[in-house]
């Protein structure tokens, strides 16, 4: 199915539309192959397909698609092809009409290009991806179990502390509110007394001095290297 999805994208049919359409085709093929009826029976019959032909390909999505596409390729009426696509591929059939109208050679070329560009995974790649996915799910489960174990071990210690803190806050909320208000007032008063123009001038002077020192030692690269050496002097020797 990967190849069909990749090629479908070249014709403007997105992945979801292709998956839904191919599932609908498979369902209709199963019904027709088993009972000779179902939603797609008339469409299969108009294409000249028999129960035997559908039964032989219904378990191979790509072979079934190619069988249907090959029959639709010979239908010159675009509207008739659109109706057949809708009947066989469901609501997303209209997105697949252009692809169903393409020739076998064109589809083979596009599939080869998709394989060459890595859009189609090999069975080995698919198996590796599944193994990775399984491993990640297992790790997620283990981490979830670990977090629950840690929570269970910490609960007897933390719950009493949390309750005591809650009780203390409840008992002292007025004091806390008053103190916070007082702190904010003092901070506001202190900020009002700051001469911000002098602070800015001081920062500019400091920046200029730092710049001169950096230039004197050969630029920022050397300055950063010096900081790193200083921070790691104990490790260096």
Describe what this molecule looks like in 3D.
This is Phage tail tape measure protein. The protein is an all-alpha fold and 237 residues long. The protein contains 13 helices and no strands. The chain has helices spanning 2-10, 15-35, 41-46, 51-57, 61-73, 78-89, 97-100, 104-116, 123-171, 173-193, 196-216, 220-231, 233-236.
Task: Please give a handful of descriptors for the protein shown.
81% helix, 237 residues, mainly alpha, elongated, single chain
Give a short overview.
This is Phage tail tape measure protein. By secondary structure, this protein is mainly α.
Share of residues in strands: under 5%
Largest sheet: none
Number of strands: 0
- The topology string of helices and strands comes to HHHHHHHHHHHHH
Distance between the termini: 62 Å
Q: Radius of gyration, Cα only, in angstroms?
A: 36 Å
Tell me the helix content: over 70%
Structural category? mainly alpha
What is the 3D shape?
elongated
Unreliable segments (pLDDT under 50, ≥5 consecutive)? none
Number of helices, counting only DSSP H or I runs of 4 residues or more: 13
- The overall pLDDT average reads 82
Task: Give the topology.
Layout: H1 2-10, H2 15-35, H3 41-46, H4 51-57, H5 61-73, H6 78-89, H7 97-100, H8 104-116, H9 123-171, H10 173-193, H11 196-216, H12 220-231, H13 233-236
Protein name: Phage tail tape measure protein
């Amino acid at each position: 199915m990967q190849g069909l999805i990749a090629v479908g994208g070249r014709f403007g049919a997105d992945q979801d539309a292709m998956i839904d359409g191919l599932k609908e085709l498979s369902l209709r093929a199963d019904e027709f192959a088993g009972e000779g009826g179902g939603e797609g029976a008339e469409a299969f019959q108009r294409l000249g397909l028999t129960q035997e032909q559908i039964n032989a390909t219904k378990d191979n999505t790509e072979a079934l698609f190619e069988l249907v596409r090959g029959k639709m390729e010979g239908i010159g009426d675009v509207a008739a092809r659109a109706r057949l696509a809708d009947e066989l591929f469901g609501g997303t059939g209209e997105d697949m009409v252009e692809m169903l109208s393409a020739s076998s050679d064109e589809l083979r070329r596009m599939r080869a290009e998709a394989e060459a560009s890595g859009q189609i995974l090999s069975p080995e790649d698919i198996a590796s991806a599944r193994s990775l996915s399984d491993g990640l799910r297992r790790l997620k489960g283990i981490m979830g179990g670990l977090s629950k174990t840690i929570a269970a071990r910490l609960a007897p210690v933390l719950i009493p502390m949390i309750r005591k803190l809650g009780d203390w806050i409840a008992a002292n909320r007025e004091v806390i509110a008053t103190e916070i208000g007082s702190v904010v007032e003092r901070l506001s008063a202190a900020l009002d007394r700051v001469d911000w123009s002098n602070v800015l001038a001081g920062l500019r002077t400091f920046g200029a001095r730092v710049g001169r020192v950096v230039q004197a030692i050969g630029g920022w690269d050397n300055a950063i290297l010096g900081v790193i050496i200083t921070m790691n002097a104990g490790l260096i020797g």
